[in-house]
Amino acid sequence: MNKVININFQGRILPIEEQAYEILKQYIDSLRAYFANEEGRDEIINDIECRVAELCEERLKKGAICIDASGINLIIDSIGRPADFAAQDGFEQANTTSSNTSDSAYNSNDDKAWDSLPPKRLYRDEQNKVLGGVCSGIANYFNLDPLLVRVLWIFLVGVNILGYLILWIAVPSSSVKEVGGVRKRLFRDIDNKVIGGVCSGLSKYFGIQVWIIRILFLIPFIRFVINFRHVHLFQFWDSPDFPNFLDFTFSPGAIFVYIVLWLVLPEAKTSADKLEMVGEKVDLNSIKNTIQNDMEGFSKRAQTWGSEFYKKKQTTHTGNVNTSDKNTAADSSTNEQNYVPQQQNKGCLHFVGRVITVCVKVFVYFVLGIIGISVFGALFGIGVAGTSLLPLRRFVLEEGAQSGYAFGVILLFVWVPIIGIVTALIRKIAGFKKANIWVRSSFWALWILGCVMVVLFINSLGNSFSKHNTPNEQSITLSKAKLDFLELTSSPKMKYYENHWFQITPFDSYDNEDTVFVRNLRVRIVQSKTDSFEVKVVKLCNGKSVQEANRLADKINFSVSQDDSLMYLDRGIAINKNDKFRNQHIIMTIAVPIGKRIKISNNGWRQVNIRLNHNGIQSETINGINDGWYDEWNEPWDNESYSFERGVEYRMTATGLEKIKRADDELNNNDSDNPDDIEQKLQKLKEERQELEQNLEKTKAEKLQELEKIDRALDKQKEKAGKFPEERKDKKATVPTGNQLNTVTAAASKLADINWVLDRFSY
Amino acid sequence: MDIQNTQSQMRKGVLEFCILSIIQKGEVYPSDIVEQMKAANLHILEGTLYPLLTRLKNAGLLNYRWVESVSGPPRKYFVLTEDGNKAFDVLLKTWNEMTGAVNQLTQNTNTISTTEVNPTS
Fold this sequence. Notes:
Chain A is of the alpha+beta class. Among the domains of chain A are: 118-178, no CATH class; 183-282, no CATH class; 389-464; 467-660, no CATH class; 675-761. Chain A is elongated. Chain B has five helices and two strands; from the N terminus they run H-H-H-E-E-H-H.
């Protein structure tokens, strides 16, 4: 019982047995190969096909219900096979059919031709090519799947054009496809499939048991699912390396690979495919075993094919040698003779032309490839980043539509084109036919849907952030505002986990599942108009509407506590899942009076932005409802802002903040100074001390002189007045020295500092 | 010496001439050509004939027209062109000369039996 198919052959419907169809197809293919270089090849083949159709029609008319294998073989025999053309030059042996003679003549060669494959040559497979057929040729030579060779090529040789070019030019192209060689191709095994037959196909190709491959695919999937349920960032990112999303062994990337393979690999439909999948010789003996049918036509055909081609190769060789000699019938054989030299001439020009076309092709492919790769890389980056940020989505996105849009964006807009592009590439490389129109259009439809999602998502997200609250400045009262020195440090109350790898501002640390801390804190340092420290805080927030923004702003919980000269600030703003992240930030203004010092400690303040505007002089208060706020926040601040060092004391002077170079700071911060610099500094300090001492001496001397003057004046007055000399002396003594004492004490304190430095240094 | 090869060379030599002769007699289908050749005891494969006809047509010696047929696809109906006729005349002359020469040469040879002249039958 044989399957019969209908084929549209030369404009007529022909019922033909499947095996017979295979025979016919192979015959036509062999004709194509044989006439590959003939000028009117297509016409010839068309004629022959017509003749075959005619003969088939005759058979059907005579009463056959369909064309079976023997029938098609008879027809083909009467027309002749390529080997007959060459070997017997188109002339049948008188009174015998060619098939019989070929049997008798070839029987002796039979075994030799079939068992010992003809000497293999490396050629380029023109029929199976992507670029130049180099990898196909290599695959044929080694009996591998061309896809495997191509992938290996890329891995081993890289995108090394030069090697490929050399092979492309040097290796000749194939004119005859080897039929019957042992080829192994990668298919999807539909008969043994669970989901898509990918694992079965792979197992058949590599010869591994199916369950092993299935487990390999499933392990990462299970692990992925388990991990995902926790949505616990740290467990996810525990590995020290970058968690490679495409880690093929144990990662969710395996799903990706499975989907790609599912889409790309063809199904093993025909019996020939199935045999190729397992890698057996496609000849009768193996087919018989698998299908259990009467296949005598097949076996004969396979044998004759193999031996014919072998014979043909030999005779064409000798035939060419003979025609190159000038021999009989000069004119009638001119056609034959002309044929050979023409081909040779064509060869030279052909070669140059081929080189040029190869170069141009390569260049174009290269440029397109780079563009494609960069686009693809960008998409892939977005995809991975987006997917890996998914756990954080609850803090930013509202439930419902917005989350839905976000998912839609990532899935449809980013991953669908990635998968589509990858599969299209692999199909092209493997030489598979393009995906059918449904698959392609559904990919496009999904991607367009993804584009729509992007628009909706951006719209929705923009809405959530559109309005911002009405800011008002709140002062924080300091106990003991008249400090000399204020140090800002982080609150030790909360435990923070510093996440060294995953730092995407603004999300910085992850306390527990419900809260995230955001370091949206900016500190402005300005000059105080009074002589005490002032701290003001403004809370800012965005939201869907102004009320929403105000509500969220009120919820911002930022505590400041003071302990003498240490001010503890929260390290970040707590954001929980219910009140989403809506760009909450805090601007803190610290007004430093002139002469006082401020220091911001090193603990964990690295990420906080500290801005100084005009060296801290400008001290406008921040109270504006208008968009001036945004400008304030985003204003291009001085470059001074970036040089505000942590852990260094600054003093506010009339002209702005100045760094105080203290010994311990210098020791801490300037470790890399060479001894010369330290020497210099030492020198400077010594000079300064001397100056100050001199100044002090001078002022002391001046004061003494003035005091003496005053004494003399008083004495004189005493003499004049006579009665109250002491009181006047006292009064006049205290008043003038009051101010002078201040300057003297200032100078003295500076001198004390310098002495202290020098003491430290002189060891 | 490969006698089979020589034989095939001899046949190859006259093949085109034979075809031209057949067509010269009148318009024919390719299948008719095969028939006539068979009748003349020169068996030719259609697979050889079609390429040959195409070559001759491309060389300008033949022309064809399509003829619809009830049973089967349309078929080509071949005829000689002017050049074809000229070529035929030239070849006929050559053939006559050659047969004359060969006959002359084989006249006095010792032939054993005519059947042995075709060892491949």
